[in-house]
Amino acid sequence: MKPCWAKEKPPEIERRIKVNDGAYNAQFEYAQNIITTSKYNVFTFLPKNLFEQFQRIANAYFLGLLILQLIPAVSSLNPVATIIPLVFVLSISGIKEAIDDFLMPVISSLTPLTTIIPLVAVLLVTAAKDAVDDIQRHRSDAQVNNRTSMVLRNGEIVEERWHKVSVGDIIRLKNNDFVAADLMVLSTSEPHSLCYIETAELDGETNLKVRQALEVTSDLSNDHAKMAAFDAEIISEPPNNRLSKFDGKMQLKEQTYSLDNEKILLRGCVLRNTEWCFGVVIFAGRDTKLMMNSGKTKFKRTSIDRFMNKLIIGIFMFLVTMCLICTVACGVWEAVTGHDFQVFLPWEYFIPEAKGSGSTTIALLVFLSYIIILNTVVPISLYVSVEIIRLAHSLWINWDMKMYYDKKDTPAKARTTTLNEELGQIEYIFSDKTGTLTQNIMSFNKCSINGKSYGDPVDREGNPQDVNENTPKVDFSGNPYAEKNFEFYDQELLNVVEQGEQQVHAFFRTLALCHTVMPEVHEDGTLEYQAQSPDEGALVSAARNFGFVFKSRTPSTITIEVNGATEVYDLLCILDFNNVRKRMSVIVKKDNKIKLYCKGADNIIFERLAPACADLKELTMHHLNDFAQSGLRTLCLATKDISEMEYAKWKIKHHAASTTIENRDDRLDEVYEEIETDLELVGASAIEDKLQDGVPETIANLALADIKIWVLTGDKQETAINIGFSCRLLTDEMEEPFIVDAESLEEVEQQLRTALTEVKEAKSGSKSDHVISNGATTYNGATASATVNTDAEMFGEFALVINGHSLAFALKPELEGLFLDLACLCKAVICCRVTPLQKALVVDLVKRHKQTITLAIGDGANDVSMIKMAHIGIGISGQEGLQAVLASDYSISQFRYLERLLLVHGRWSYLRMCKFLQYFFYKNFAFTLCHFWFAFFCGFSAQTLFDPYFISLYNVFYTSLPILVLGIFDQDVDDAHCVRYPKLYVPGIKDVLFNLRVFTWSVIEGLISSLILFFIPYGAFVYSVDSDGIDKADLQSFGTVVAATLVVAVNLRCALDMSYWTGFNHFVVWGSIIYYFCFQLAFYSEAIVYDYVGTSFEVFGNPATWFTMLLTCTILVVPMVVWRFYQTSVNPTLSDRVRLRQRMRKSKSRGRDLTVHRQSTFRRSQRSIRSGYAFAHQAGFGELITSGLNMKERAKEIVTTPVRLTKMLRQNANHVPKKSPTTEGLPVPGTSRSEPGSKQPSPRVSKNLEEPKKSQSTSSVDSVSRPEPSHRPEPSPLPQGKTIFVERL
Question: Are 474 and 491 in contact (CB under 8 A)?
Answer without folding.
Answer: yes
